[in-house]
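Q: Two folds, back to back.
A: First:
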Amino acid sequence: MKKKYSELDRYYEYIEGNTIRKSEQVWEPQHEEEERRRQERRKRHALERQIEKERKQSRAFTLVQTGLLTVALAGFLVCTKNYIQVKSELNENNRMSASLQQKVQELQEENDERQIAIESSIDYDAIREYAMNNLGMVYPKKSQVLTYDGVESEYVRQNAEIPKE
C-alpha cells in the first residue's frame, strides 16, 4: 500500500504486515520534476517576499526617524540663523572699530597740532625777563647747586636729609 506525505510532496511505499519493516522511497521521474519546480517556485516567492519586505522597510520612514530628522533640521536652521546673526554683529563691530580708530587717529593729530601751537606760542625769553626784572629772580650760583646721586627711576623718595656736601 502507498501513502502520500504532503509535507514532503513525495510518494513513499510501505510494506505492511503486522509491523512496518521497511520504507522504500519510490521516485517517479514526473514527480521529481514537479518537486524541483515547486522548490524553485518556493525559493523564488520567498526571495520576492524578502525583497519586497526590504523595499517597504527602506522606503518607509518611521515616526521616530521623521521626528529625529525634523529636530535635526530645526537645530541646523537655528544654528545657521545664530551664525549669520553673530557674523553680522562681528562685521558691524569691525566697521565701528575701524571708524573709531580713524577718529582716534584724527584726534591725536589734532592734539599734536595744538600742542605744537601752544609750545610755539610760549615766549621763554619774555618769561625769563619778566621773572628777572619784575620778580627779582636770578640764576643760582654754583655754590647754591647741590648734586645728589640717587637711583635712576622716575621719582626720588627722600628717606633722609640731603647731604650738604
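A: Second:
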Amino acid sequence: MPKHTGSAHWEGGLQDGKGTVSTGTGVLKDQPYGFKSRFEDGTNTNPEELIGAAHAACFSMAFSMILGQHDLTAETIDTKADVSLEKEGDGFAIKSIHLDMTAKVPGADEETFQKAATAAKEGCPVSKALAAPAITLDAKLA
C-alpha cells in the first residue's frame, strides 16, 4: 500500500505566526493557516477542519464498501464531521467528532442502513487512527 503524505510549514510565534499546509498529491499546496483560522474567525484552513474533511471522506468510503457487502449501492452519501477543539488544562484537545451523514440508498431498510453506518464509523481507518494509542515521532533540530 502506498504512503500518503501531508506537510506543514510554520514561521513565527503562535498568535503572530503563519503557516502553510500541503498534500503529497498537490491537491492542497501551500494553503495558509494560522491562529485566527483556528481559534477565532479567520478565513484560512486549520488542522481540525482538515481532520474533519479526512474523517468524513474516509467514513463515506467505508460506508459505501459495507453497503456493497449487502449488495446495496448508494446513489449519494453526504457526510459532515464536526470536530470539537476544547480547552484542556494549559492547552487544547480534540474532545469529540460528530459525524452527520445522509445517504440515498435504494433498497436499503433502516436496520441494515444503521448497522452499516455504525460499522463504517468504527471501521474506517481515520476513526481507528484518531483512537490509536500510539503516535510515533522522529524530531531533528536543524
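Q: And?
A: The radius of gyration is 18 Å.
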